[in-house]
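Q: I have 367 residues here and want to know how they pack in 3D. Can you give me a structure?
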Amino acid sequence: MKRKIMTLVMALSMTVGLLAGCGSSQSVSKADALSGDGKTLNIMIWGDTISEDVISNFEKENNIKVNVSYIDSTDSLLAKMVNSSENYDAISIESAYVKTFVDAGLLRRIDKSKITSLDDYDPVYNKGFAGDEDMEYTVPASGPIFTTVTYNKETCPIKIKSFKDLADPSLKGKIAMVNSTISLYGTALAALGYKPDTTNEDEIKQANDLLEKIKKNVKTFSGTSATSQMENGDVCVSFGWDYPTLCSMSEDNWTKFADASLNSPVEESIGYMAIPKNAENVDGALKFINYIIAPESQAASAKEFGGMPATSQEKTEKYLPNGYYDNPAMKENHDLASDSSKYWQISINDDQISILDNYYTELMADK
């Protein structure tokens, strides 16, 4: 999370506003119009979220060519939206940025009458995020993920009850962590009893002090996954999104690894699909979103990448291998999502970013 994200949001907002004011063929004043030839769909999504088979099947069934751009951060998504000569018809949005996109006027309202697959959702996962609680602009693309502390039950030297326990000297060189600013500081703040979205600099400094202590035990920081390090024994503790993936890789991992039961809530993150304000193929985007959240498509993506489908078990399990829902990570995911006291969510804001950026840069600097 970098401050330039907010700059890119403003740049994109101005671009959309200019198109509307100039009466362009992409004018947002004609919000319900379908421009373009309707035969091409430009989408921008995170890697390892939607199966390529799902996209290919959608193309065949709807006679629409889908051009896919993959992103690895909200930063890269915005950069492409600002700098590309192409308009995008459907995009992935991290939950923490939903409010920013909605408030900046970057998204179209979604015609829910065209998204019939929402009827197949598990009620626990059928929810909007701050800034779009009623899901007027966004639709969950899958079940949520949680940022947790995963440990090897055979080799972890201590019982982990708190995020603060990761500073225990016995864990030196045994931890892998994601380098996500929100995940790191939000979890540290929650462990200290503070709100994860606080802008109180004294509280953030205390969180930074805790992270500095934990950093002494960290063997590696990664942007996405530490599953390989956990599997080969390089580390015995990871902080990130590894547990569902580890459990989907092998049933042996069901007994080998577990998530620590922390005494503070964990981060919940949801991937949403949305339609940009200057999308050209709105009808195709609605068809695509409806297609990828249908039970069969959710199952195909879950089989390929692991994780919990957003659709109900009753509607989805016939498309999954026998015993898929016996996976302990699936039950944990559902239990966490069912109890709001067990997780926290935040929307990024300028005030917090300006404080966190300074501390994060210092935290990650080589010493």
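Q: Anything worth noting?
A: The radius of gyration is 21 Å. The longest strand covers residues 145-152.
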